[in-house]
Structure formats: structure tokens, C-alpha cells
Automatic annotation (TrEMBL), chain A:
Keywords: Membrane, Oxidoreductase, Transmembrane, Transmembrane helix. It is found in: Membrane. GO terms for cellular component: membrane. It comes from mine drainage metagenome. The lineage of its organism: unclassified sequences, metagenomes, ecological metagenomes. Residues 1-182 form the Heme-copper oxidase subunit III family profile domain. This is Cytochrome c oxidase subunit 3.
TrEMBL record, chain B:
One of its GO terms (molecular function) is cytochrome-c oxidase activity. The gene is norB_1. It comes from mine drainage metagenome. It is an enzyme of class 1 (oxidoreductase). Residues 1-459 form the Cytochrome oxidase subunit I profile domain. GO terms for biological process: aerobic respiration; electron transport coupled proton transport; respiratory electron transport chain. It is found in: Cell membrane. InterPro entries: Cyt_c_oxase-like_su1_dom (IPR023616), Cyt_c_oxase-like_su1_sf (IPR036927), Cyt_C_Oxase_1 (IPR000883), Cyt_c_Oxase_su1_BS (IPR023615). This is Nitric oxide reductase subunit B. It is a multi-pass membrane protein. Its EC number is 1.7.2.5. The chain crosses the membrane at residues 12-35, 55-74, 86-108, 138-156, 163-183, 195-220, 232-255, 261-288, 300-321, 341-361, 382-405, 425-446. Pfam families: COX1.
TrEMBL record, chain C:
The keyword Transmembrane helix applies. It is found in: Cell membrane. This is Cytochrome c oxidase subunit IV. Its main location: membrane. It comes from mine drainage metagenome. The chain crosses the membrane at residues 12-31, 37-59, 71-90.
Amino acid sequence: MPPGDLAIWFFIFAELLAFGIFFVAYAFARAHNVELFNESQQHLNIASGAINTLVLITSSYFVVRAVAAIKQNFSRECARWIAAAIGMGGIFLAIKLFELYAKFSAGISLSTNTFYMFYLSLTIFHFMHVILGMVILTAVMLKARSGGYSAKLHTGVETGASYWHMVDMLWIILFPLVYVIH
Amino acid sequence: MQYKSQAVAKPYFIAAIGLFVGQILFGLIMGYQYVVGDFLFPAIPFNVARMVHTNLLIVWTLFAFMGAGYYLIPEEAETELFSPKLAIIMFWIFLVAGALTIVGYLAVPYATLARMTGNDILATMGREFLEQPLPTKVGIVIVALAFLFNISLTVLKGRKTSISLVLLLGLWGLAVFFLFSFYNPSNLVLDKYFWWWTVHLWVEGVWELILGAMLAFVLIKITGVDREVIEKWLYVIIAMTLITGIIGTGHHYFWIGAPEYWQWFGSVFSALEPIPFFMMTVFAFNMVNRRRREHPNKAATLWALGTGVMSFLGAGVWGFMHTLAPVNFYTHGTQITAAHGHMAFFGAYAMVNLTMISYAMPMLRGRSANSRSAQTLEMWSFWLMTVSMVFITLFLTAAGILQIWLQRMGSNPMSFMDTQDQVMLFYWLREIAGLVFFVGLVLYIWSFFYKKGEAHIAA
Amino acid sequence: MEITHKPHFIRPCTLVWLTLMSLTVTTYAIGEANLGGWAIMLTVLGTAVIKVQMVSSYFMGLRRTRRLWRGIVLGWLLLVAGLITIAYLSTIK
């Protein structure tokens, strides 16, 4: 069995499928319109995308430490690692908001062109997953803090962790695909 | 039946089945008009028959949903209904309003009906599925709000379970999205855009929550599987439903003048809509396999499993077939749509209602299940209705494929009416399958009156 | 309270974390240098594939589970990356 609740894995696979279709659709839409995509890509802020990758990877690592902590029966330590991961999630959202704000104030919208349609939909769709992941992690953190998990019983922690790693994984593909490769 | 007030569900279920019979009769009339165009003309023209067929479907489904709510909520909340009297008053208001509406459709021309019912005060009529006159629409809102008030207060004073929360969410969503039926902008694109907020967000959004909650309730009762297990599945399923269904609205925005990005959104998200239905099937079979008791009502178990399979096939597979924008470019508004509509509506909503009625009606009549021979009859009705619906769907699909080929592809496309002549054979076959369906429905009703054999006495 | 030892997966995960960080910096450098072409494209995409595989094997811990679960994620990854590659290479004449 994979770590965490089996139900979350159905959910994770469905999410992977959804993003997978979107990634592939992006690649083929680009193939029909290479110049437009290459040109529009020049206006993206690669630094902010890269920093966000580092932020998410680090928060994923914090979640690994949280799982390790609960396996040693350290509830408080587990809750602290999760809190740190949620904090990193918050930083991700803040950076992303600055980036999107810059784009929207430049008058860019879903209808600007096909590239921006994909850029905005993919990043905003992923953005919402970060929020959902943070909600799940918060629920896990609160339960961990009140001693709801133990070295023996901690499926909930692994469930939250698995979902959060998935959010990280998707960004690891999204960043090079949309920001870097041309 | 554990709580006295659950009894108010009974008239709702009876009315639902009565209206279902009406729906099928008008379906048969229309099916015959497909092949003999002037049948019953001018008494019941095709457009009127179609309106009655679809409106009855909506109304009987609403009756059954409300009945399910009244039956299920007291048992889940472990308390009597807040006001059984209000439930009965609303039943009669809804039934009379529904009956008057249908009489109005049949007795006077639609334009006259519109003038008589104040459509010039607030124009809401004339749009597919939302043809109801203004007073009926207002009546639906009042009845729905009184119903929601009643069951919400019941839940508030009693135990709060995931099933009742999901059901409430679905029913509140149903009421809220119906409000868009009062919004009728003169811009045709906007009109269509928001029309789908009622139509699509009902059947591919909040109604699925109601479906999930009803199915979960029946499965808990007949399998005895732990509530936690069933609730976990329910949450994952409804999360998937909402994510895919809400943005999946885009598959209706391909060609109505909405922005182009909807072709991507609609294609991608609605391609995922089969997943929650697939999970529902796996869920139903999984729970029945892990059952911890042998419930005497085998027929209800069969209906519950059937709902899973048929909703997946009808809504999931047949929906997916024509949901991608490049495919939909050709299939839009053909008999493929009709095929999908029939199997999806039957498989998801008609069947979950029949499941609920099959489970609850014996309980309401003071026994845990009907006699074995009555159940055998009911299982016959299950197979007759289900198999004939599969055939209706297959015939319409064949008609649709031929129609697309002749009318929309090739260098010399035929006109619409010439194409109709070419697919006549499938319409004949569809009508025959429809008659078999009707026999199945009659058997379903008969099984409740079948006296032979010992009924199972409620524990 | 029972005494438990520090789980043995922390150390490899720390190494994985550091590797992921440095690979990200590499990708960023390529992006800032505005490099293009099929070799660069394959390098960057290949890096992403390796990174995802590391997250799923080590962070998610799928390497300790049955082949089925690893297989689903890896299969998804290779399929998506493969199709992206095809789409990109199809534009090079």
C-alpha cells in the first residue's frame, strides 16, 4: 500500500491525469504556434518561478521531516515541521501573487493569446492546489498538535504529506515547461 | 422505519413514480412521432410532447429527491423531522402546481400560456427545460426553500453526519442554481451562458452530490459497512465531482460565442468527469463485497449496483464520447446528445431514485423488505428497464453516427430532414425498446402490490 | 513511551533535497541564459523527470511500496514527458 489513505491516492492519480493532459495540451498547442509561444515566454519572470521551485521543494522536505518525527512519536516536533511547510506554502503564494499581479496590471488576460491562456490557467490551477494542500496540512497540523497521531497511528500525516509532495511534483514539471523550455 | 415523521416521504415517492409513468408515456408518444410525424396532431404537437417529457422528468426527480431527504434526514440526524405538517402542505402545493403546469402545456398554446401567466412581467419562459410559467418557477423556489428549511433545522437539532451534510450541500446548491432560471438577458450568448448554470451545474454538479449521498445512505443500510469507510469514499467522490463538473461547464461553451479558452477548459475538465462516476461504481461494488450483513432487500442492492454501472456508462462513457471540442464540433446537437441524455439521466438519477424507493418504500409500509417473489418481479423490472435503456442508447448512437456522417461530413452533406429519413429504422427500433422499458416500469410498480409470499417483517 | 530510533530515511531525503535544489539552480541558469534548441530542451526536461522521480521515490516513499504504485507514477511521468518531447521535436525541421 502507498503511504497514507488509499482514497487520497485515487485523488492524486486523478490530479496527475488532469495536469498531465494540460501539460501535453500545452506542448501540442505550442507546436502549432512556436513563434508566439517563444516570444510571449520572454516576458515571464524566470527568477520568481525558480525561487518558487526552491520554496516548494524545501517545504516538501519539511513534510518528510514531519513524517519522520511522528514515526518517533514526537507529536509536537511533527506539528512544527508541518507548520514550517505551511509557511513555505504561504511564501509560494505571495511570490506567485506578485507575479500574477504584474501580468494582470500589464493588461494580460486569458484571452490575450494561447500562450497566456495556458500560462494563466496552469499557474492559477496549480495555485489553487497549493491552497488546498495548505488546508489539508493545517488540519493535519492541528490534529498532530493535540496529540492525535502516534508512532503506530499516523496515516493522516502520510495522507497530507503525499498530497503535498504531489503539488510539489507538478510544479517541478510546470516550471521548466512553461518558463524555461523554448 | 425508525422515526414516525419519515412517513411524509411516502406521498413524495408515490407522486414521483406516478409522474415517472407520465414521463414515459409522453416519451413513447414522441418516439412514435419521430416515425409517424402527424400522430396525435394537432392535439399534442411534438414540441409540447417533448416539453412534457423533459419537464416531468425534472419534476419527478425533484419529488424523489425531496422524498429521499425526508426519509433519510431524520434517520441520519436521529431525531424527528422539524415539521412533518409543513412537508405535507408543500407536497400538495408542489403536486397541484406541477399538475396545473402540465395541464397548461397541453390545454393552451405555449404563447397563450405565457401571456396568461405573466411572462411579460418577468420573461423567463421559452428556454429548454426551463419552460415552466413564472408562477410555477416561483412555486418551485418556495417549495424548495420550505423543504430546505425543514430538513436543515432537523439536521441542526440532531446528529450531523457526512451523508446529511453532503445531501444538504447538494440540495442547497440545487435551490441556489435554480435562481439563474429567473435571469434571462436579451443577449443570446449571455442567456445561454447562464442557462447552463442551472442546467449543467444541476446535473453535472450539485445533483451528483445528492446522488452520492443517497447511494451512500442505502449502501450503509444494506451492507452494514462502517460509516467511516463509506464517508471517506463519499468525500473523495464529491471533491472529484465538483472539480471536474464545475469547470467542465466549459463543454457547453464551445460554440455559443464564449471566449476560446473554454474549448481547452471544457475539453480537459469534462474529459475527467467520468472519474468520479467510475469511483462510484468501484465504491458500490466494493462496499457490497465487504458487506457485514445480509439485508433481505436484494432488489435494492441490485438497484444500487446498477446505479453505479449505468451512471458510469451513461454519464461517463457516453458523455466522454463527444465532450472533446474537436469531436463535439461534429456531434453537437445530434442524436448522440440524445443517446447520452437518455442513458445518463436514467443511469444516474432515475436509477438512484428507484434504488431509494426500492429500499425505503417497504420500510415505510412496515416491513424490512418485500416478499421474495415480489423482489423477483422487481428484479425483472430492473433488467427490463436497464437492458431496454441500453438498447435505446445504442439505437440513438447508431442514428447519431449515421446522421453526422450524412449531414455534417463528406463533400455533399444532406439536409436535416433528408437525413432523418435515412435513420428512420433506428427510430423504429428505439420505439420498440421504449415499449419494453414501459413494461419494466409497470412491473416495478406491480412488485409493490404483489401479495404472494411472506414479506420480511421489520426487526 | 517507547523509544524509537531516528528513521533511516532522513539522511537520503536530506541528500535528495540538496540535489533537487542544485538541479533547480541549473535549470534556472539555463533559463536566464536564454538557451534553446533540442539538446537544451532534452536536458531541462530530463532534469525535471529525474527530479519528479526523486520526489516520488524518496519524499513520497514509493520506493518502499509495491511495484504497482511506483509504476503508475513512473508510467504517468514517462508518458507525459514522452508526449511533450514528441510535440517539441515535431517543430524542428
